[in-house]
Amino acid sequence: MKITPRIITVANQKGGVGKTTTAINLATALAAIGERVLIIDLDPQGNASTGLGIDRKDRSVSSYDVLTGELEIEQAAMETAVPGLSIIPSTLDLLGIEMEIASAPDRVLKLRNALRASSERAAGYSYVLIDCPPSLNLLTLNSMAAADSVLVPLQCEFFALEGLSQLLETVDQVRRSINPELTIQGIVLTMFDGRNNLANQVVEDVRAHMGEKVYDTVIPRNVRISEAPSYGKPAILYDLKCSGSQAYLQLASEVIRRERKLRAA
Ligand code: ADP
Ligand code: MG
């Protein structure tokens, strides 16, 4: 049976809001429940690759090769220590890609074309998660053109909603121009500190503005989550019991529940 993967891009043009952490841990949680998952690291910084234990020196293939058409998805995917989870790592080559493809008529469609070519060959992934750079650049646009939906991590801080309208506007533009099916997968609040009154206020505000798009699951600020990447492990492998890991497992089940609803509709 041919499986069509659900393609979710994790995007927010702000840095440090939890995109990579969410991509890694949501992917791990989905793999743990038996899904076959591929992460595509589209950030030249390569934090998702490092966080999943793929050292720079071992990145003989990369998302750059996929965008340039050099390699097919299957050829660029590397296995990780998490069973069922593969990654297409990123390398610093990605820094130059904008210039290299800027004049190509299909510059926004590079990733989509690669993924479509691959689904012909039944890559067999049930989820593809894309980790975006902190910018609404050509890489992020490629991810939105290729994706079914956008998952937006928002950090529970004063300026959380700032920038969100620009992000949503970009999603609208992509929908109008190249990907009419693109939806907002959901908004996940990250780095929540319940002792902080402001954080509680932010959660309320975001829920008031964005309604049911916001996941019930809120990811707490948890030091174990920030330690995990230096061991090259997702938090869920590093410390399954910590509050952060538990929250990401809960988020995964919420994502799956919403998926089922969508597919049934
Ligand atoms: P982005 O990819 O949006 O730039 P990251 O996922 O890299 O953001 O997170 C930014 C920093 O915050 C990283 O050092 C990460 O380890 C840390 N971090 C992310 N989520 C949490 C959390 N829930 N608790 C504690 N630290 C976190
Ligand atoms: Mg990141």
Automatic annotation (TrEMBL):
Domain of life: Bacteria
Any single Pfam family the record assigns to this protein: AAA_31
Signal peptide: none
InterPro entries, per database record: AAA_dom, DNA_Partitioning_ATPase, P-loop_NTPase
Gene3D superfamilies named among the record's database cross-references: P-loop containing nucleotide triphosphate hydrolases (3.40.50.300)
Occurrences of domain AAA (ranges): 6-184
SUPFAM superfamilies: P-loop containing nucleoside triphosphate hydrolases (SSF52540)
Function: Involved in chromosome partition. Localize to both poles of the predivisional cell following completion of DNA replication.
Name of the protein in question: Chromosome partitioning protein ParA
Originating organism: Aminobacter carboxidus
